[in-house]
Structure formats: structure tokens, C-alpha cells
TrEMBL record, chain A:
The protein, known as: L-arabinose transport system permease protein AraQ
Species of origin: Paenibacillus plantiphilus
Membrane disposition: Multi-pass membrane protein
CDD domains assigned to the protein according to its UniProt record, in alphabetical order: TM_PBP2 (cd06261)
Pfam families: BPD_transp_1
Keywords of the record: Cell membrane, Membrane, Transmembrane, Transmembrane helix, Transport
Domain ABC transmembrane type-1 positions: 86-278
Gene that this sequence comes from: araQ_6
Similarity annotation: Belongs to the binding-protein-dependent transport system permease family.
From TrEMBL, chain B:
Topology versus the membrane: Multi-pass membrane protein
Keyword list, A-Z: Cell membrane, Membrane, Transmembrane, Transmembrane helix, Transport
Localization of this protein: Cell membrane
InterPro entries (UniProt xref): MetI-like, MetI-like_sf, UgpAE/MalFG_permease
Protein name, entry field: ABC transmembrane type-1 domain-containing protein
Length: 292, 292
């Protein structure tokens, strides 16, 4: 223990002035970066009189479990067991991450590396649709989903998520940077397009792919829209939707704030877990992604 | 001979088929859930829409809603749009420069670099979520939450009042900048690593100082990623769910909402076009892109 401390201290000494300043700056900046997480964790344990303090505080002064009890009490009253909502959300988000990432990458590859006729048109369409807020298309989407007959099915949750323009856009820009010689070499060695895609393009673009996976998980995990619009049966709705109904339906705004704070934390934690799992791929592979 | 010809055509059709297969899953989702709904909403913006129990009734009203929004009622568009645009003009360059500098610093070798990379990438998981929205909702573009913190007290105690006020507002917006530059930092970091170390070594041998190395090597090398980040930032800022104009797009009066959404879309498009034009100008005058 002492040895390790000593070694760390010596490492600090070994840094030059510039590195020390840099370290200090980074520490200050990362404190700000971490604030929202500190806030959300503390918020869930605040007693009622602290929840409504203005301006809000980051740290809880007298932590209590009262909010958790409140949430448990409310969920005990619901007609459908909470596990069912949880299962729906996990199932949908898991599939959504796989499908969205795969579909985006598959689409981005020909756009970046095969200048097929009309690729400019396709890419322009993608960039244009990036600029639309999803709220605009709610009603037409409802019509499409009901016409397709996928109301009340898992397809209704999944399919509208599939077309994520930002995914294709980010991946295409990354794939543009892969040297053609790398792909040519693989083709000469007898790899077909799919092998090139799977063995070379995807590993080289891993940071972007993992970023898309994180974004896809977030958008599907926190999605309440498809449950509200496309799902009639209570058993088909998502966990995020369920938690949001706990607090939205009440006339009294104050009543369920404690449970809402806990619900926000519960909704946030999976995001954090997925992030922790995937960020390793994002950050570690950047160093030796093999470009050039 | 016939056989050979057949084989050639089958090879090219195979290639084409393969390419279409790559794009197909995404393209179908895109057409059904993005392109068609958008076209439908454009159609609806010229209609008066009434949603009844039996279905949707529409009566054509021509350009009425567009005229209403653009010329008659400033409350719907201009009151929120002008301050928002002003903020965006300030925010976008700051986000870009900040994330560029941070990425370069994160590329420097120092203790705990990996941990800092993770922390700076962290905002990705809460930037689009509810937490930030809650923070922003408490103050207009600033963070009320900082008022209760120690930092605020230090500022008011040790800094003269005339300086404290602007400092505070800059600090508030700065935290927002920090929180909305996660993906951008990552993109720059990945981009920075595509520049081979040998180029820097060659520059050092030739006696280039760090200043000119940055302008002549790092910045031109990052220019494709700069463009990517520019587009990403504009899109991210303008389609943020708490954006004042998007929050007015509701399903209640769908005709007006659609018209508003399309007008807003045109404005965003114009804004992006201007930004790209400026970028191209600046990059040409600085000689960025000369390497690639």
C-alpha cells in the first residue's frame, strides 16, 4: 500500500509543469461533467422538504428511503406486474440496439465506399431528415403503424426506431476516412463484400459503431411515445412509459415527486451501465483502429 | 462466349444486388417511418385537420397557416426564434472550439488520461435526457442550480459586482457547452488519431514549433471531422426536445403544427447552409484541406 502511494507520488513528481496544469484543468472540468450524475443520485434520497428547495441543491443533507417506499407502494397497486414492463423494455431496447446499429452500418457502407448512382440523393435525404424533430411525424406515424397492423405488437415498438438518420450520417462520415487500399487488399485476397464489411469496416469504425449503439439504447430505453400511441394493452407498454404515468396522471403536482425522483434514477441507471460497457470499446479501440 | 458474357453480367448484377441488400433494411424503415410521414405532414400543413372518433377529417385551407405564422401572429414563431438563433450563433463556435481543444488535450499523454476520456464522453448519456432538460427549465439558458453552490458564494464575495454578473452568466452557459459536447469531443479524438505520429515527428525534425504544427498539421487533418461536428452540433441544437419552437409542435392543431414545423425546418436548413458556406470560406482562406 505504502509502496503504491510512493510510486504514485513519484509519478506526480515526474510530470512536468505543463502536465500538472493540464491535470488540474481536466479535474476541474470533469467535476462539472459529473454534476448531473451526482444530482440525480442525490435527488432520489432527498426528503420532501429538500426536494422543493429553490435553488435546488446537489447534495442531500438528510438522506431518507421514503421516496423508494413511496414508489414501491405505488407499483404494488398497478394491475400489471412491474416485471412485465421491465421485460418489455429490456427486450425492446436489446433488439433495438442490435437492429438499429446493424441497419445503420449496412446502409452507411455502400454510401461511403460504393459510389452507386444516386448515392448523393440518398445522402442528401438523410441530412435533410436529420433536421426534423420527431414530434412532427407523430400522427402520420400512427397512421402507418395502424395500417401495417402492428399496433399492440413488439414490431410497433421496434420498427419506428429503425430509421435513425443520425446513425447513418455518423457512420458514413467515419467510413469515408477508411483508405480504399485497405478494402482493395481484402478484395484481392478474395473477401466478398460482406466479409470486407464485417472484418474490416466495422472493426475500424468501432468507436462510431459503439457510439451509435449507446445512442440507440438511450432512444429506445427512454421512449414513451410508442407506448402511448401504438400500444393499447397495458401489458405491451414500456417501463419508461409506466414510470412516467405514475407521476403524470395525478392532479396534484407535489404528491408523487419523491417517487418521480426515484423513477428518474431507475431509468437512468441502465443508461449508465450500457455506457460503461460500451465506452471501453469506444475509447480503447480508438488508439489502434488501424487507419493509416 | 455466351457463358462468359452471362458470367460478367451476373457479376455486376450480383454486386448491385449486394449493394441494394446492404441498404434495404434501413431504406425501407426510412421510407415507411420517416419519408412518408414527412410528406404526409407537408400535405397536412395545407389542411385543417380535425381528429374525430371515426377518423381524421381534413379541409383544404391553402397557405392560410403559413401566412398566419409568418405574417400575422409573431407569438408563435418570432418571439422565441430570434433569441434562440442568437444563442445558437454563439453556442456553435464555442462548442466546436471547446471540444476541439479538449480532444487535443485528451490526446496528450498524462496520468489518468483514460478516466478523463470516459468522463468527457459521459454527457452523451444524459445530454438528450430529462436531467438536462430539468436543469434548463429552471433557468432560461442558465443554470439556477449553481446559485446554491459554493462557487457562487465565492464569486460574489471576492469578485466585484460589475464583473461577477457576466462571469456568472458565462459560467452558466459554459456548463451547458460542456454538457452538449460529448459526441463532438469523441469525434475529434477519433479524428486526431487518424493523423499519423510520423507526420508530427517529421515536423519536429524540421524545427516546427507547436503553434505552427497545430495550424499546419492538426487542424487540416481534422477538417473532415470539423465539418462533421459542425453539422452534428447544428442538428443537435436545433432538434433538442426542449427547444422553444419544437415544444410548440403539438398534436392538437395538427395543420398549424405541421406548417410551423416546415417553416422551422426551412429556417434550420438555411442556417445550416449559411454555416457550411462560412466553413468553406474559412477553410479555403486558411488552406485547410490542402493535405487531403
Amino acid at each position: 500500500m505504502r509502496l503504491r502511494l510512493w510510486r504514485r507520488a513519484s509519478r506526480l513528481h515526474a510530470m512536468d509543469g505543463f502536465q500538472k496544469v493540464l491535470l488540474l484543468l481536466m479535474i476541474v472540468l470533469s467535476v462539472f461533467m459529473l454534476l448531473p450524475i451526482v444530482y440525480i443520485f442525490n435527488h432520489a434520497f432527498k426528503p420532501y422538504h429538500e426536494l422543493f428547495v429553490y435553488p435546488p441543491t446537489f447534495f442531500v443533507k438528510e438522506p431518507v428511503l421514503q421516496n423508494w417506499n413511496e414508489l414501491v407502494a405505488v407499483t404494488a397497486r398497478s394491475t400489471v406486474p412491474m416485471v412485465r414492463y421491465l421485460f418489455n423494455s429490456v427486450f425492446i431496447s436489446g433488439l433495438a440496439v442490435l437492429l438499429v446499429t446493424a441497419a445503420s452500418a449496412l446502409c452507411a457502407y455502400p454510401l461511403a465506399k460504393h459510389r452507386f448512382p444516386g448515392y448523393k440523393l440518398v445522402f442528401a435525404a438523410i441530412i435533410l431528415t436529420l433536421m426534423f424533430a420527431p414530434e412532427v411525424v407523430q400522427i402520420p406515424r400512427y397512421l402507418v403503424v395502424s395500417q401495417l397492423g402492428i399496433m399492440n405488437t413488439y414490431f410497433g415498438h421496434l420498427l419506428p426506431l429503425m430509421a435513425m438518420p443520425i446513425g447513418v450520417f455518423l457512420l458514413k462520415q467515419f467510413m469515408d476516412q477508411i483508405p480504399n487500399a485497405l478494402l482493395e487488399a481484402a478484395r484481392i485476397d478474395g473477401a466478398n463484400e460482406f466479409t470486407v464489411f464485417l472484418r474490416i469496416v466495422i472493426p475500424v469504425c468501432k468507436p462510431a459503431v459503439a457510439t451509435i449503439a449507446i445512442l440507440a439504447f438511450q432512444s429506445s430505453w427512454g421512449n414513451t411515445e410508442s407506448s402511448a400511441l401504438f400500444m393499447m394493452d397495458e401489458e405491451m407498454k414500456s417501463f419508461a412509459f409506466y414510470l412516467s404515468t405514475l407521476t403524470n396522471n395525478l392532479a396534484n403536482n407535489v404528491a408523487m415527486q419523491g417517487a418521480a425522483a426515484v423513477a428518474a434514477l431507475i431509468l437512468f441507471v441502465p443508461n449508465l451501465i450500457v455506457f460503461v460497457i460500451l465506452q471501453g470499446k469506444v475509447i480503447a479501440t480508438m488508439a489502434h483502429s488501424g487507419i493509416k | 462466349m455466351n457463358l462468359a458474357k452471362l458470367r460478367i453480367t451476373s457479376a455486376t448484377t450480383r454486386r448491385k444486388l449486394e449493394g441494394s441488400l446492404f441498404i434495404a433494411p434501413w431504406a425501407i424503415g426510412f421510407l415507411v417511418f420517416v419519408a412518408f410521414p414527412l410528406a404526409y405532414s407537408l400535405y397536412m400543413s395545407f389542411q385543417q385537420v380535425r381528429i374525430t372518433a371515426t377518423g381524421i377529417n381534413t379541409t383544404p385551407v391553402g397557405l392560410l397557416y403559413y401566412r398566419e405564422i409568418l405574417f400575422a401572429d409573431g407569438g408563435l414563431l418570432y418571439d422565441d426564434l430570434v433569441p434562440f438563433l442568437r444563442e445558437a450563433v454563439l453556442m456553435i463556435p464555442i462548442i466546436l472550439i471547446f471540444s476541439l481543444l479538449t480532444a487535443i488535450l485528451l490526446n496528450v499523454r498524462f496520468g489518468g488520461r483514460m478516466i478523463f476520456r470516459v468522463i468527457f464522453f459521459l454527457p452523451v448519456i444524459f445530454a438528450s435526457g430529462q436531467i438536462i432538460q430539468e436543469f434548463i427549465a429552471q433557468g432560461e439558458g442558465q443554470l439556477i442550480i449553481l446559485q446554491g453552490s459554493q462557487l457562487e458564494r465565492i464569486l460574489s464575495d471576492y469578485v466585484p459586482r460589475s464583473w461577477g454578473e457576466p462571469l456568472r452568466s458565462i459560467l452558466g452557459s459554459f456548463v451547458l457547452v460542456l454538457w452538449s459536447s460529448g459526441v463532438q469531443i469523441l469525434i475529434f479524438l477519433a479524428g486526431r488519431q487518424t493523423i499519423p505520429a510520423s507526420v508530427y515527428e517529421a515536423a519536429r525534425i524540421d524545427g516546427a514549433d507547436p503553434w505552427s504544427t497545430f495550424w499546419k498539421i492538426t487542424l487540416p487533418g481534422l477538417s473532415p471531422f470539423l465539418l462533421l461536428n459542425l453539422i452534428y452540433t447544428v442538428v443537435d441544437l436545433f432538434t433538442f426536445p426542449s427547444n422553444p419552437i419544437i415544444s410548440k409542435v403539438t398534436t392538437e392543431n395538427y395543420g398549424v403544427s405541421s406548417a410551423l414545423a416546415w417553416i422551422y425546418f426551412m429556417i434550420v436548413l438555411l442556417f445550416l447552409g449559411l454555416a457550411l458556406l462560412l466553413y468553406r470560406r474559412a477553410s479555403r482562406s486558411m488552406g485547410i484541406g490542402a493535405i487531403r
